[in-house]
Amino acid sequence: MYTTMVKSRLLDQRVWQLNRQGRAALVASSQGHEALQVASVYALRKGEDLFYTYYRDLAVMVALGVTPREIILGYMAKSGEPMSGSRQFPTQGAIPDLGLVNLSNVVATQLPQAVGAALACVQQQSDAVVAVYFGDGASSTGDCHEAMNFASVHKLPVLFICENNGYAISVPLEKQMAVKNVSVRAVSYNMPGFTIDGTNVSEVFKVVSAAAKRARKGEGPTLIEGIVERYLPHTGDDDDKRYRSEDELAKAKEKDPVQILKQRLKREDILTDAIDLEIHDLVKASIDDATEYGESAPYPDPEGFYDHVYS
Amino acid sequence: MQEINLIEAVRQAMYEEMDRDQSVFILGEDIGVRGGVFLATDGFLEVFGAKRVIDTPISESAIAGVALGAAMRGMRPIAEIEFADFIWPVFNQILGEAARLRYGTEGKLQAPLVLRAPYGGGIRGGLYHSQSPEAYFAHTPGLKVVAPATPFDAKGLLKTAIRDDDPVIFLEHKKTYRLVKGNIPEEEYTVPIGKADVKLQGTDITLITYGLMLHHCVEAARSLKKGNVDVEVIDLRTLRPIDQDTVIGSVMKTGKALIVHEDTLALGIGAEISAILAENVFDSLDAPIRRLAGPEVPAMPFSPTLESQFMITTSDIIEALKELSEY
Ligand SMILES: Cc1ncc(C[n+]2csc(CCOP(=O)(O)OP(=O)(O)O)c2C)c(N)n1
Ligand SMILES: [Mg+2]
Prior knowledge:
Helices cover 44% and strands 12% of the residues of chain A. By secondary structure, chain A is an alpha/beta fold. Chain B contains twelve helices and 14 strands.
């Protein structure tokens, strides 16, 4: 899990850097969200369960096994990118073999879709569960309410995983909702709701595992709200200085999920500095390789422009 | 006179109207502290306060519905949808409700609201930040749809839209925001809704367009004038109601028409213009009506090689004009 988090973090830093150099078009960073994303994937069954994600879920992709090469192809909008063939923004599209769907940039559209996918799982007598990831901002939409209500009425196997970083672009939580936590809404759908520390992999793993178990038994959905921090501006095009103080940001960065896990593993004598260095070196090498690979890859062939409009 | 870009024109129009009329207020995502993702409301929160500059949750349906409710009670809301690609939830409140309010209450209630949205592509916005939604709205009686192409028109039309007693969908092409600059007078002015603008006079071909494409069309027309093909360029500016008189009058004179828009072809604005021309100036036509429009794919792709397949260029327009001139 630690290696996956390091991989995601370094990859995220790389694409952000490429963006600043004008070599990657658009970036929405998952830095600060990694523990929630990675540990939730580890608590589920890769290749069987489904993952409906949004634009800030790079670490979910990495945890599912999408490679740095595949990911960087997307950031450079190059040919061979597996999610959408670079028809879409980086990380958007789908890899059905991994159960991964990240269709849209339109906030919250994934929520009803995830509920529908869960309905299909039940209809097909599969015991797959659907994890759907969304931000605190997304919870203000009608789609979110309708999805949760529907899922709970029909006791569908959905894990609603809210990545609460306290902001919808510039709008802080208190201007988005009059409650303190998204999870309290679970009561109104008669489903369990938890607010957990989204920087703590053990807590995430435990709660997601239990919710998955419950869902598989046909007992219905769970709302899991992980409290996390968004380290960087909303995207590469945003300027968070307009709405976020340096103090606040410095405080936020103290809750670094990668550092927290690292310190813990060291305390428990699982990780040594030497091993950590080795992990970083290996990951860095694969990201360097991916960057070169991306640079040398061609852009998509415009010949395919009209493909896949209809069956 | 002052030279400003299009986003500044939008900003000035809203600022001046809010200053002039206490019933005008704005609501939308990130419009407060952030000043809007394109900075259209930069500084508004400090000047007008949080009661009139309302940062909303991500709730497009509520943004539209709340604006409608406030408008029914006599306020003049300007509702902003952050990107036109996120506008679909407003159909329920705007097409279904706002457009029918006056009709359905026998004129007792009205909805003097403006729904602003940045639209259009060519900015590497991909499938979800490039869309042109105008045709969906322009189809609906009860709504007005405006799509300015210059700072002068943006400011003058937005002021008119805010003062209008009916719901107005106000579409601003993102690519024009900083790219297109123009002069506007120091003194107060407005531009009427429902009036097209003849940008270039000509006698051989009528070129009808709006939005970003206007600038490509003017460039194309200028290039043809050098070869002695005299192209008249019409900027529709308003897409509902369409200024039929100007369009019909021009094509009666030239006998040839090319319609250009970035939005996809089938059932787009060009289809309506073609029908208007076929019904009214059939006898004056010297060539079939031609349309040059976005390709029939569901949305504009992201990668540069694919995006450029979508966008119409000046040379595409020149080519189509040449074909028409030789017909
Ligand atoms: C329906 C819709 N409205 C507005 C937007 C513009 N937008 C993109 S991301 C975003 C904020 C989302 O905040 P949140 O759900 O908390 O996710 P975060 O980015 O914080 O992870 C907004 C308003 C959008 N993409 N979709
Ligand atoms: Mg958020």
